[in-house]
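Checklist before submission:
- one chain only
- standard amino acids only
- sequence pasted in full

Submission:
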Amino acid sequence: MSGRVALVTGAAAGIGAAIAGRLARDGIAIGVLDILIDDATKVAEKIEAAGGKAIALQADIANRTEVQAAVAKLREEFGPVTILVNNAGITGFVPFKEITEEMWDRMMEVNVKGTVIVTQEVLPDMEAAGWGRIVNISSSSAQSGAKLMAHYSASKGAIIALTQTLALELGPLGITCNNIPPRFVMNTVMSEKAFEDSHISRDAIIEAGPIKRQGEPEDIAGACAWLVSDEAGYVSGQTIGVNGGRYI
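Returned file contents:
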């Protein structure tokens, strides 16, 4: 994969940072994009210290102007972007009857509209190359439902449907699109907020699945590394569950 360029969103910590580091080890140059530029810079510096190539980029993915500027900076540094991992997103725990229109709109704006914006902005590079890989990080909550997360699970369900549609539209152009719906992945900002807001027990999460351990960011990163590789060129429109068997 040497010579390829990837954009990973929400890459300042957790799953996104693990994916960025894993792809860099395969020789891919990484755009570490996040709204938190200081943390993104730390991830990029860690990748470079390990011998990889990376640049920190700042953008709110729901803001097309900011995304355009970030993608342009990545192209200028490393070249055309032919790998995209849409990982950035927000979450929330609110009873359905208490979800306001503002809460609903913001969830959709970031998780759905933001994913669409970033994908549209890098798509021309993939079309020109006749080769591309898109991996969307959805959520197992979209497959099974989740109490107190109607707006979040709905937004991630949209990502699964978007993945399938893009696979159909972009396949003839040499571009694959797949999604990974993680379960609770420990030691991430989102999972820590989930435990705090929902009062769910860590032990209960572990015991609920057949594989009796917590998920780690590296579990998601390993699956992602395969999906963006040449070896996965005949895989598209798929949901690759990395969830310890919790959803079967």
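Reviewer check: The two ends are 32 Å apart (CA to CA).
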